[in-house]
Protein 1
Amino acid sequence: MRALLAALLLLCLTAPLPAPARARAAAAARKKDASFPSEVQRALNALVRAELAKGSYAGLSVGVLHGGMRWVQGYGMRDLTQQLPATPRTTYRMASITKSFTAVAVMQLVQEGKLELDTDARTWVPQYPEKPWKFTVRQLLGHLGGVPHYDGPEAAENTQPLDTAAALALFASKPLAAEPGTKFVYTTWGYNLLGAAVEKASGQGYGRYLKSHVFGPAGMRHAALDDQRTRDKQHAVGYRHFRGQLVPSHFLDVSSRFAGGGTRASVEDLLAFGQAILQHKLVPAETARMMQASLSTREGQLTDYGLGFATYPLRGHYMVAHAGGQPETTSLLVMLPAEDVVIAIASNLEGEAKRQRRISTRIIETLLEEGLVRRDAHLVDPVDAVVHEGLARLFTYGLSYHLWATRGPGALPEPGDLSEAFTRMSALLDRATIAQDPEAALRRVRDAHQPREGSLLIRVGAHMALTLEKTLGPEKLREYPKRGALAFFTDYLAACEQVPCPAPLRFSEALQKDARHFGEVWQRAQVAELRRVRLDEVKDPEALWPALELATANTALHPDYVDEMLRIAGLLGKRGRKEEQLRWLERTVALHPQSAPAREALAKVQAPGTQSPQAVPAATAPLRTTDGSSPVPDDAGLLPASRPAPQPSQERAADQGG
């Protein structure tokens, strides 16, 4: 019966919205706080239930706002022992999303002239000892101040209520982790310094300031500091995974991380906060632009983090987000300023970051991309991989920044000499040059959006988006997140025939040929039955394997199914169906020979306990900015002693929590 129900729900998820539903959605958008059309509500509910059906969970609350329409829903139990359901009203620990609240408070005080962004932060927190280098409020907001993060379990496991002075004393004697401005060092302790600065500048306690200047004006009726003594009956009991079971979370008093991870709220509160940010109720548009723009290191490398928010392009959308994870909770807030979308997700189960990201991705696909599943491309040839990644990055940086600047509060870098920029882009994706050293070429492509490289990808891609908008119209531009990078590029070439574009702005003939070839191969490699559903969401994926194998046979470019196939194999393994698990892992490697995760998973099953194979060279790694992952901090606050320290390239994607 449960399987039948899941199948019926999946039908709601995978079916495209009919034209009347889209018309009703447009009409509803003109009403304040209107409900989504019933078809959309069923699709949203189905996608959440489909994700929850894949593994155990406790309680989960989800909320979505889009253009004045609203949907909120609770799933599972906020208290497993008492069998109390999770609802939109349920409050959860917000963990690191607290940093976004703190950042708003700081920027309000900056607007009032009570704080300054670019002066020594110790001006407002004189009790913090002087260090070898000074750091500013702006650097603290962007995790560029060098203040360290938790450096071991004992630093993160406080169980006693602490005031501001005691919370600062926990790390006051610790040295800076890096020279300010040189390195992104995600830090909850740095945000505690900002909380102390808010108290000094405002003359109010941190919690009182939030209540009167952030929570109140935003309409966050149930948000507060997470004081164990004042929790109401709607607050969720926290759980964690332990030996295949859900058990109560370890006790943690979060007053020790008050401004970096010490609040609680409901998803309704989070939606209200996100809406207030997008509507500039808490800070004006000019300030919102500053908060949503990525900072960069002294060497001109973007951090994908602004002032209190992670901020980055994803498949042509400009994402402004934050996540949180600590004992008792996992939380996620996602905003798309250009599309007027807010997504809020909170759970009372630890370690749910990947599941919440998948849910948020499916929500975006449902609301903005007609439910089409967006997959990365898998390419076998290393030269093809570099060229294709360059086209993908032109699309995602160009479209997202253009939309953020024209539909949101954002701003673009100066266009500069566009002819020279387009010529450089063609040279960067020249096959002969790439073939000499594909790995070095890939690094150059992946650096081409950086300020130190003149923001090349952003400038060129944004001009392409502007040309498409002028030629095809504003609404046509909204189609590219679902149509993808190759359609964006080839449509630009067609638009250049109409405008017409100067010769240097048409790219090289070789690059034009590559893009058209990729587009033709990509279309042939699609499986119709998988356009609106993931393989691991299908009731009988085995029945679809022949079609998938046929579509991807003898092609060097096809959709990447690694994650979906690994999830199928993982579920089979949990059910004790080892032979089927092994078969799916072998298929995954055969279909994606360059995939390190696929080969590692197969090796673990074939020879448990043996060392994983060597990682795939960088030239064949997938494009991080389009694969659904993000630099949003999401890890739990308690650090197991056996966990290795994050490598520099992982720091933005794997913070140690709020």
Protein 2
Amino acid sequence: MDQARGHSPHELWGLVARQAWARLRRRLRAGPSYRWRYSGRTPERVLIAPPDLRIADPQVARDIYHGQFLLAGQLVETRGQSPFRVPVNDLPWQDALHSFRWLRHMRAAQSDLASANARALVEEWMALYGRRVSGMPWEPGTTARRLIAWLQHSSVVLQGAELPFYRQFLKMLAVQMRYLRTNAREMPDGEDRLRARIALAFCALSLPAPATAVKAASRNLAQELDRQILADGGHVSRNPRAIMELLTDLLPLRQTYTNQAEQPPQALIDAVERMLPALRFFRHRDGSIARFNGMGITQHDSVAAILRYDDTGGAPLLHAPHSGYERLALGATTVIADTAPPPPADLSHFAHAGCLSFEMSSGRHQFVVNSGIDNYGDDSYRPLARTTAAHSTITLNDTSQARFSLSPKWSDLIGTPLIGGPRKVECRRDDGAGVHRFTASHNGYVSRFGLIHERALSLSEEGAVLEGIDRIVRPDGSPSTAVGDDAVAVRFHIHPDIDIYRDPEGRHILAGEATDTWLFTVEGIIPVVEESIFFAGLGGPRRSRQIVLYTTASEHPEIRWRLRRTHAINGNG
């Protein structure tokens, strides 16, 4: 596999132009003067409430009733006020509030009180935001999530409703549907644009609509699925989290087609059948999803709920050439590695500078990890989590493969795309009898330091041995001559649950439990244990440690290291 991609200045200026044009169009289509465009016939009823796969908790409904809104990792107490009037500067919290996905907890409560509270909150939103199409509550991505949630939980919201509310709710469903239909084509590329098409398909099935409307929604959905879901089931953003989030909407949509006696688009059937094995590809045995390119905290129950629909059986795929990842799996050991350039600039706002990084798990323990991101934490940590040094791979001269920190003026306009990074990544899979292995290289450091990083990983002996060879050489394969400007750091971030000991010979032992320990060795270099941060902890960032190999490319153009499973812990930590 040979993948080439780069983000030139022309691409960034193109991104600026597209974002500016899209913002202008949305501004022109917002406000009271444009409200008339989205008015029209009010549907008579909701035909069907689609299912929701997201985990629901009745206790959350009780907390919301008492004015406690724990959304996007932040707890806000309204103290008797409407949550829509409480001044909260946290944008993820605001987005979660206006997306209304928390309605599922009201349905789980199965009480008249929860239903009345859900109805009151929807009524408050319609009174405050229903007359003016503008601002964050009407961002197309937020609108798509809200539209899906209102349809999925319409039975709870409408339970015991009087006719005026019933009619107003249906009217607002139609207004949001027309607004989304108008803006979907010009939304920024990526997950939200696909979700807008999913929301519109839900509307065509759940509300009274002519057959032509169902066909149009299905056709547009199919086109977006074919464009965004790769042949191996990955998403064009290269973010494993996108697969999980989109499946949580696509599986209920497929079921809704069936429930309405409509034939799902073949593209929907095919996409789901590709995405389910892709999600398993990124899954460690403890249920966690590998942390690459924007993946952070894994909600294990959510993943399990999705994978109940995967009836393919057998072992996960080992090779994802279109997404750009490799998986080595023998015995109880799993290794997952990033072997491709970053995604296109439009889709790289969550991408990481982690090319050739890997994660390794053994049984129910993760040993070597990437730092991941804190999905619900302070955004100020995200740039650090995206750096090459936050990944289990090599950094040269303490420099990241790519950058993503722009001035606030630029970030406000185009977000935080990944700039630079590897333009060409070559990967060759070479499995043998009892051995899973690959060799990959990237040129992310060539423009600055004139050096290539090549990594070969080999898993053998029924998963008991993982061997790595890291080469830092010039593009023609010759050793580095840049003495003094070729500092190498090979990092192995260790999961916080793993202890690091030294045996009597001074070698490092990684211990998950007495029956699952690994010996780390390296040729010619003394490993150093340093502090690190694991951002993707369920309770927020956690202190962890990393093993680092410091050398220079001119001194050690080839670095050989090994992890071997052992069953004894000797010495003191």
